[in-house]
């Protein structure tokens, strides 16, 4: 736990993680809030609700690298204030919009969503030393898991006790409060020794979007494809068993396991390669389909959960080290887009497998997707050229260019 105490002792880190958790929890719940509003408020079909959710998700995927590039060139606070104002306008207008206008407005809201996750990752890379970074990204991944456990559940409870309009306003208010809080904190997105990176200009994309970076983005995509598929496979398995009401319990066990895995991994003295963690994640997911009722399914998803946060943490760490300081915003935006695309693809991919076979094949499809991404990441990372010292100094990159953690970084206090 010494590593976590050192991370939380970094000036501004604890407050950043707290405010970011508020924003990320609300952002995690925004799709659910809009779904319930379309179904309960507008009294339209679930297909119509899916259209709004897809529009919002597509906007987030497209907007990630654009917002990141704006942060690199215009500064963090300017981007946060613009996105906060857009979110205020969108969520206040949700109950006033017809379905057609809501569809278009959802895309714009996603395009200019408060980049809480990407900003947190950038700030972690800037505020921590190399030996602290793995523990810090583990905390960031645990934060993400907590948001997925809490956010949708609070929205569902709120819709059951109030109205979908009030829930939508509440989610919007939390997003705005979180974004405004991060803007107020204005955490650094470049370390002090990287300050010259902005003045030196942006390095050419062909230089930093290397095989190693593409490997990291591929594994980010594969990880969320797997996770999205697992969620659907859980529901399908329990529906076949006539126990769909227990799905929430299984999902909570899954999330708690991930939190535990992230905390344990962040405290280890030696890191593991990203491709290996993702490969193991895929391997333990495939046999989860053998479970036939909810108690055994709770046991089966523990292995997947324990490896989820560590895999996400190593992906974030890899992206932060591979990206020169002058383009780290764009790189973390690309990571967010890759993860959003994975979430969007995972459910349809697994859904096809379930429709063509049995619910157990959903876990197999999700696990195989992770294995394919891990294999691709391994092959690409082996092809990643090493940047020269001159290239590193010219563009302000202070991390090693390789995809995997350095052995020296595994030992706190170095």
UniProtKB/TrEMBL annotation:
Stated name of the protein: MFS transporter
Species: Plantactinospora endophytica
Alphabetical list of SUPFAM superfamilies matching this protein: MFS general substrate transporter (SSF103473)
Keyword Transmembrane helix: yes
This protein's UniProt keywords: Membrane, Transmembrane, Transmembrane helix
InterPro entries, A to Z: MFS, MFS_trans_sf
Residue ranges, compositional bias (Basic and acidic residues): 401-414
Entry-linked Pfam families: MFS_1
Phylogenetic classification of the source organism: Bacteria, Bacillati, Actinomycetota, Actinomycetes, Micromonosporales
Residue numbers spanned by region Disordered: 392-414
Keyword Transmembrane helix applies: yes
TM regions (residue ranges): 46-68, 75-93, 166-187, 208-238, 244-265, 272-288, 360-380
């Amino acid at each position: 736990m010494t590593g976590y105490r050192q991370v939380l002792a970094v000036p501004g880190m604890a407050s950043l993680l707290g405010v970011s958790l508020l924003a990320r929890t609300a952002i995690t719940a925004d799709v659910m809030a809009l779904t319930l509003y379309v179904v309960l408020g507008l009294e339209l079909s679930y297909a119509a609700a899916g259209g709004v959710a897809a529009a919002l998700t597509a906007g987030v995927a497209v907007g990630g690298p654009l917002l990141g590039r704006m942060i690199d060139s215009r500064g963090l606070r300017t981007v946060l204030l613009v996105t906060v104002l857009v979110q205020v306008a969108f969520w206040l207008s949700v109950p006033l919009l017809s379905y057609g206008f809501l569809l278009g407005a959802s895309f714009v809201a996603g395009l200019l969503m408060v980049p809480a996750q990407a900003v947190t990752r950038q700030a972690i890379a800037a505020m921590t030393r190399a030996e602290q970074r793995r523990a810090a990204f583990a905390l960031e991944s645990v934060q993400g898991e907590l948001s997925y456990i809490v956010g949708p559940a609070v929205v569902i409870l709120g819709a059951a006790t109030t109205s979908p309009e009030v829930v939508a306003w509440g989610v919007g208010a939390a997003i705005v409060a979180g974004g405004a809080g991060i803007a107020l904190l204005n955490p650094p997105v470049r370390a002090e020794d990287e300050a010259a990176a902005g003045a030196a200009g942006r390095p050419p994309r062909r230089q930093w979007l290397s095989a190693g970076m593409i490997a990291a983005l591929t594994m980010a995509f594969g990880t969320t494809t797997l996770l999205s598929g697992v969620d659907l496979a859980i529901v399908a398995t329990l529906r076949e068993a006539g126990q769909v009401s227990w799905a929430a319990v299984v999902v909570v066990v899954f999330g708690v396991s991930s939190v535990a895995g992230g905390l344990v991994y962040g405290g280890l003295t030696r890191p593991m390669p990203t491709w290996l963690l993702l490969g193991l994640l895929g391997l333990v997911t495939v046999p989860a389909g053998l479970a036939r009722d909810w108690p055994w399914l709770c046991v089966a998803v523990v292995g997947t959960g324990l490896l989820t946060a560590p895999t996400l943490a190593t992906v974030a760490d890899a992206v932060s080290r591979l990206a020169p300081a002058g383009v780290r915003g764009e790189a973390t935006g690309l990571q967010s887009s890759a993860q959003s695309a994975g979430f969007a693809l995972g459910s349809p991919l697994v859904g096809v497998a379930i429709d063509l076979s049995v619910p157990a094949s959903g876990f197999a499809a999700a696990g195989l997707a992770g294995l394919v991404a891990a294999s691709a990441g391994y092959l690409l990372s082996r092809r990643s050229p090493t940047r020269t010292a001159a290239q590193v100094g010219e563009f302000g990159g202070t991390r090693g260019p390789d995809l995997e953690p350095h052995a020296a970084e595994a030992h706190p206090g170095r």
